[in-house]
Fold:
Amino acid sequence: MALRVYDTLSQRKQLFEPLVPGKVGMYVCGVTVYDRCHIGHARVYVAFDTIARYLGRMGYEVTYVRNFTDVDDKIIKRALEEGVDSRELADRYIASFHDDMAALKVAPVQREPRVTDHIDDIIGVIERIIDSGHGYVVDGEVFFDVESLEGYGQLSKRKLDEMQAGASDRVSVDERKRNPADFVLWKASKPGEPHWDSPWGQGRPGWHIECSAMAGRHLGGTFDIHGGGKDLIFPHHENEIAQSTAAHGQPPARYWLHNGFVNVKKSEEDSDQGEKMSKSLGNFFTIGDVLEHYHPEAVRLFLLTTHYRSPIVYSTENLEDATRRVEYVYETLAKMDLVLDAGPSQAAIDEVLRPDLFEETLRGFNEAMDDDFNTARAIGELSDLISFLNQLADAKDKASKKRRHATFARAREVLDELAAVLGIFDSPPREVLQGIRARKLKKISISAEEVERQIAARDEARKARDFATADAIRAKLAAEGVVLMDSAGETLWKIA
Structure:
């Protein structure tokens, strides 16, 4: 199958054909750095990280640009409250963002521009907008004249005559505007605020213009993919289209991709899809807080098991389920590694068991990802293979034992290839299992050291053929919530 992506502008899936063969330019709106990132941010950047990874696997040279908004009303307000410079505050939360993304295995992007480093670019775009007749100056501020541009509203499917001032919390009421839907390109500075010189007086950029300028600077007037959350369709991305069209004579992106919202259930008993997560509702969870309780791979798996365009429900139940799935896969990988580490295979590579299953898994995975990056289906395609490998690891028959080393070696190749796209199941199994255990141990009354001591005592009892004592230790640990797994002469354990 050829890759097809859902384009928000056309509202249909389209064959993906990059502007330059073999290369992809992708711009995704970044964070405003005045606070710690929440799980909604994780949803965006895990989704587009996976998209970039798959495009790379297809052989494209990907230039992924993701910006930082480091000057903004919220940043200025927080900096004043804390008595620090706006730049210092922004630096702190940029570092926090990088820590969160690294934990979730979101790969570094090719370019990461900051608004304050691109003021000249922004001023240049505004000048072109004014020169083209689509911008006007009032009291040292510059506004975009939405009525001057035919087709305004095409992305959000809104009609200009139906738009009302205040319809969005980011559409402000200002009597100086020619039309209530007009939006600011350059804001005159207030005392004590960061500001820059411009042809219209000292001030700072409006929110929408920054992305048009930085995308144009790093990817050119037109590039392949523009991404972000659905909340950015209007007014932010709508206004980006207007600005870039006015400045360059053409829209900025060929394909517009938007991820769905993160919804939060009010309680585990609720059967509905919950309410949209937002800071205004007070129902948001920072990435750091979530990772205190759940392993990063479980969080990433949770985010990928729903198609990126669909809403996803954040709940303890769903994160616990993701944790169990990650545990199962890594327990299987750990058992495989015990076999692989034991020595070279005595079977030839053509003696790999179930080669058809490997081919089916690869084919199904590729078909799923080619269908608008359907990670939910792609992960599902791994289920039969993982189940087979787990059964093979526990097999007692001699024929399977002889050939399973070659089979596991092939499995590792396939899983590593697919894990490189998903960003999961590619860590050392013991590290992940220990990380999950550590989080679960916080909820029960036994320490890891005590579990290991009990396992050692059980091993001694088994060597002495004192099976009654060994069984009693297993039962005692089980009562504490500790499950023992005997495999290849070694005992692994987990918290139920």
In short: The radius of gyration is 27 Å.
